[in-house]
Specification:
Elements: E1 19-22, E2 31-32, E3 37-39, E4 55-58, E5 70-73, E6 78-79, E7 83-86, H1 94-103, H2 105-111, H3 124-128, H4 137-181, H5 186-191, H6 198-223, E8 255-258, H7 259-262, E9 263-268, E10 282-287, E11 305-307, H8 308-312, E12 319-320, E13 325-328, E14 330-331, E15 337-339, E16 347-349, E17 353-358, H9 364-372, H10 374-381, E18 385-387, E19 390-392, H11 395-400, E20 402-405, H12 408-450, H13 465-481
Parallel strand pairs: 1-6, 2-5, 10-16
Antiparallel strand pairs: 1-3, 4-5, 4-7, 8-20, 9-17, 10-11, 12-16, 13-15, 13-17, 14-19, 18-19
């Protein structure tokens, strides 16, 4: 059975509807008990009512590129056009059929997917003719009971592993919070008096920042063959200062600064147009948001490279180096942060990523920890703008971000403590991830055994599946042979001529 969408502009089909209307967005659990949308009884004139305990399958959705959603409806429902329902005949368990489709997910997506469609789709006819292994009716029940017993045990283990992952994420965030507030190194600070305070360090960084600007300006004048004009130093663009009114009090020896004060510059990358020629050997990595993480490191499982020609030409402003700190400014997700490693001498980034290049005396590792902390994340996201479902951070916000400045020796101590704690978290996290991978593999093993006759014992007393299928064929043949009722012809109306 298929479905459709009643006219959404006609309230008689939707207003105060009570009949569940299933679309792919509802297919999030194996037993479907409710839907986001409901239609009225008036819509049933245009839709078929799918009986309870049918097997629902998504046949058109982007999610089909990854998985095949299957569910059992626990109440009568209607469907939209992206769904199909299978109503099993007597002797075929709907649970058995549903689990069999789940077990056949890879084969169905490989063999039944339509070619040349903009949205991933499964061809209904091919899906309907997909071969299934039918067990005797009584054995079907035993198989379903065993699958669900084993899956319940697996689900409990998975829930524990996922809870552990959430605890690790909370621990990491609390660790960053106490780090940037100075609590993490309170005892260390008492034992290691700083030779230079955060205020003194900030003053030195600001002097270096201005000296770099002046050196660049003098180099420009020299390239142009011009003498520096009078008062050129007064045109220095002073970095913005942080608004400290509502900021927490920092430990003695720490200072507040804006991110712009601490960096040589903060800017964003560029994405080359698709029609830009990119000749030459592609050796320069081009980073996108998908490469950034919430752990401070890059995910390079999906690498893209550009040529040296494009890198030095169109993407010159997107050039980044090892040690630069990157943050995605277009989301969701928003605010993922990674440091550029020394794997390659030069990299490029796209326009959804901002570059923070800290000056000497402010460690890139500490900058990345600050940007990942709840202090920075909440400050930035509370000021972000959302349009059409896309959240954006401006460079002005990035530059104005208040950043705590500890003495450089304390920055190093904080980074060492965090890295040591995070290494321990990563070991625990990898154990959890390994457990989840094993659970997923075990599910596949259970399903594979279930539908190859190896999960539960066979009983010779069971009616064989061949007899069940023969009975179903006979029922189908009987229905096909049954003559359709012929409606009596209505009396034909004859025209009468009015007497003159």
């Amino acid at each position: 059975m298929g479905g459709s969408t009643p006219d959404t502009s006609d309230s008689k089909y939707w207003s105060d509807g009570t009949v569940p209307w299933v679309s792919p967005k509802d297919m999030k659990s194996f037993r479907l008990r409710s839907t986001i949308d409901r239609v009225t009884d008036s819509a049933l004139a245009r839709l078929s009512l799918v009986p309870e305990s049918s097997v629902l399958v998504v046949v058109r959705s982007g999610i089909l590129s990854r998985t095949l959603p299957v569910a059992l409806n626990m109440t009568p429902v209607t469907l939209n056009q992206d769904m199909r329902a299978f109503v099993p005949r007597a002797g075929v368990s709907s649970e058995y059929l549903a689990w069999h489709l789940v077990a056949s997910e890879r084969e169905i997506l490989q063999q039944c997917t339509k070619d040349g469609t903009t949205v991933a789709s499964v061809e209904g006819g091919r899906l309907a003719s997909h071969a299934l292994a039918i067990a005797p009716t009584v054995e079907q029940s035993r198989i379903v009971d065993k699958i669900e017993e084993l899956f319940t045990e697996l689900d409990a283990g998975v829930a524990e592993l996922q809870a552990a992952q959430k605890k690790l994420a909370r621990y990491r965030q609390s660790l960053l919070k106490v780090a940037v507030e100075g609590t993490l190194t309170a005892q260390w600070r008492e034992q290691h008096p700083a030779a230079e305070t955060g205020h003194e360090l900030l003053a030195r960084i600001l002097e270096e920042r201005r000296a770099r600007w002046e050196a660049k300006q003098l180099a420009k004048f020299s390239e142009q063959g011009k003498a520096p004009p009078k008062g050129w130093e007064d045109k220095y663009p002073s970095p913005c200062e942080p608004e400290t009114d509502k900021l927490p009090v920092l430990p003695d020896g720490w200072a507040w600064a804006s991110a712009e004060q601490l960096c040589d510059f903060i800017t964003k990358g560029t994405t080359p147009p698709k029609d830009l020629p990119d000749s030459g050997h592609k050796t320069v990595p081009f980073l996108r948001v998908t490469n950034l993480t919430d752990s401070g490191s890059l995910d390079l499982s999906d690498k893209v490279f550009v040529s040296e020609q494009t890198h030095r030409g169109f993407l010159a402003r997107s050039l980044v180096y090892p040690g630069d700190v990157l943050m995605n400014i277009v989301g969701p997700p928003l605010g993922q942060v990674s440091r550029v490693p020394a794997t390659f001498p030069e990299w490029n980034i796209n326009q959804a990523i901002a570059i923070f290049r800290p000056l000497g005396g402010f460690l890139p590792a500490f900058m990345s920890q600050v940007l990942l902390s709840s202090h920075a994340q909440q400050w930035l996201q509370s000021r972000a703008k959302t349009t059409a479902g896309q959240t954006n951070l401006t460079l002005e916000l990035c530059r104005a971000l208040p950043v705590p400045v500890p003495p450089i020796s304390e920055q190093s101590a904080i980074c060492e403590l965090i890295e040591s704690a995070i290494e321990s978290c990563e070991r625990i996290g990898e154990t959890a991830r390994h457990g989840l991978r094993q659970a997923a593999a075990q599910r596949q093993n259970i399903l594979r055994a279930a539908f190859s006759g190896q999960l539960v014992p066979q009983d010779p007393a069971d009616e064989p599946a061949s007899a069940l299928l023969a009975r179903i064929r006979a029922e189908r043949a009987g229905r096909a042979a049954k003559p359709k009722a012929i409606k009596a012809a209505k009396p034909r109306k004859t025209a009468t001529r009015k007497a003159s």
